[in-house]
Design brief:
single chain, 253 residues, alpha+beta, CNF1/YfiH-like putative cysteine hydrolases, 6-stranded mixed β-sheet, 5 helices, binds zinc ion
Length: 253
């Protein structure tokens, strides 16, 4: 299966939201109230500081409820609503049908998966690295959207945001074997037998297997490692580096 080529920069736009520099998926800008993006690295900054600035800014701009997760590279997807408790649940995905709720996940090489249904305006936001792909977090997110929020997956649009590209993401034989089980095309062997994984290809493959039309899936033109001046990369930098981006999605009041 082929996914859309890496030439969609025209569909992404740098902008500002909640007092923070972000990259957003342009086609959704015309949807009333829909707010979505990934923070761009401002400087070396504690992710918690970025979170506080962004969430405080968004609270003043139509979001009464902010939801985040204790991420564990798993497949647990939570419903984000006004009635869910204020604690931080463990999980790697949020879905919502409510206005005024903003969901956030943190990323640095892992894929921020944005899901949107233009008819019901339900949305989903997932964090998917290699372990999330192997655990099929996107399938679980789509299942919750379909079964709990009653969304027809044929209508759903997906934007796979900035994350590590297959040229930069070398994996060991075990990870390669695990990911090749998802889709053979998601792992490429080159450079004398070295293996490289394409997380966004794998996610697109999983989404289409759930019934999301291929033409509704868009891939960011940005790699967090190739474009390390714009984004934090777990691989390109020290793995102990502080930097992380925040991906966020919601519909404002
Ligand atoms: Zn790259």
């Amino acid at each position: 299966m082929k996914i859309r080529p890496w030439s969609l920069a025209a569909l992404e736009r740098f902008s500002k939201e909640g007092g923070t520099e972000i990259l957003r998926f342009q086609p959704w800008e015309s949807v009333p109230g829909l707010c979505q993006g990934v923070t761009v690295r401002p400087s070396r900054e504690e992710p918690e500081l970025t979170y506080r600035r962004l969430s405080a800014g968004m609270q003043g701009e139509g979001f009464g409820v902010i939801r985040r997760l204790k991420q564990v590279h798993g497949a647990r997807v939570m419903i984000a609503g006004k009635d869910t408790p204020g604690s931080i649940p463990t999980g790697d995905g949020l879905v919502s049908s409510e206005i005024g709720v903003l969901g956030l996940v943190t990323i640095a090489d892992c894929v921020p998966v944005f899901i949107f249904d233009p008819v019901s305006a339900c949305w989903g936001l997932l964090h998917a690295g290699r372990r999330g792909v192997a655990a099929a977090v996107i399938k679980e997110g789509l299942r919750v959207i379909k079964e709990t929020l009653k969304v027809d997956l044929k209508r759903v649009e997906i934007y796979l945001g900035p994350s590590i590209c297959p040229c930069c993401y070398e994996v060991g034989p075990e990870v390669a074997r695990l990911l090749a089980k998802v889709s053979q095309g998601g792992v490429v062997t080159r450079n004398g037998g070295r293996r490289y994984a394409d997380l966004r290809h794998l996610l697109a493959f999983q989404a289409t297997s759930c019934g999301v039309p291929h033409e509704n899936i868009f891939t960011s033109a940005y790699c967090t490692s190739c474009h390390n001046e714009l984004f934090y990369s777990f691989r390109a930098e020290s793995q102990h580096a502080l930097g992380r981006m925040w991906a966020f999605m919601g519909r404002r009041e």
